[in-house]
Design goal:
Low-confidence stretches: 1-45
Number of helices: 6
Order of helices and strands: EEHEEHEEHEHEEHH
Distance between the termini: 24 Å
Radius of gyration: 18 Å
Helix content: 25-40%
Mean pLDDT: 77
CATH architecture of the largest domain: 2-Layer Sandwich
CATH topology of the largest domain: VC0802-like
Shape: globular
Strand order of the largest sheet: 5-6-4-7-9-8
CATH superfamily of the largest domain: VC0802-like
Largest sheet: 6 strands, antiparallel
Number of strands: 9
Length: 191
């Protein structure tokens, strides 16, 4: 089974073809590209980030409604959302069931960006978020923003984090026994 994933090659993000979770099929090409940086074979690590879409919306009555209608009418499930606003515009941040359909539905009159964020599983109990934030704080990871969503699993939720260093944040969270998601995982935990 071949899948595409995001990986880190000597500190630089790469899109690579993976075979059954093994190093990239095209590793020899990347090794040649990475050799000037490191004479030894490059280190490959899979990033388990999920894709968040951010849509810049005018801060006027009905604009959010129009955006949500466009996504819904395209048959896309909104899995998580957050809205941040200023006086003149808002940023609608969404995690959706179909990224391409969402971009197509909104792209006519909306500026859209794709951002990698981390979704970390946490227990639905007091102190769960504190544990995650404590781990990241101790590692010096800066959190730019955060929001959460629930899943089908009983007593669990996911916190979505935009951090300054996704690679290190995921490695640290995983070392501490916390589960992070990728885009494919979303299909298994959400309807």
């Amino acid at each position: 089974m071949l899948i595409y994933c995001t990986a880190i090659c000597n500190g630089a993000p790469q899109i690579a073809l993976m075979a059954d979770g093994k190093p990239p099929v095209s590793k020899s090409i990347y090794e040649r590209l990475c050799r000037p940086v490191a004479q030894s074979a490059p280190e490959w690590r899979i990033i388990m980030a999920i894709t968040q879409l951010s849509a810049f919306l005018e801060n006027t009555p009905g604009t959010l409604y129009k955006a949500v209608c466009a996504i819904s009418d395209a048959g896309v499930n909104l899995r998580a959302l957050s809205v941040a606003d200023t006086r003149d515009f808002g940023i609608l941040r969404v995690i959706v069931s179909d990224i391409d359909k969402t971009v197509a539905a909104l792209s006519d009159d909306t500026i859209i960006t794709r951002t990698s964020v981390i979704a970390v599983r946490m227990s639905d109990k007091a102190g769960a978020l504190k544990q995650i934030l404590s781990i990241l704080q101790a590692a010096g990871i800066n959190i730019e923003y955060v929001y959460a969503f629930t899943a089908n699993a009983a007593n669990s939720a996911y916190v979505v984090l935009r951090v300054n260093d996704i690679e290190n944040a995921e490695a640290i969270l995983t070392q501490n026994g916390l589960e992070t998601l990728n885009d494919e995982d979303l299909n298994t935990i959400l309807p």
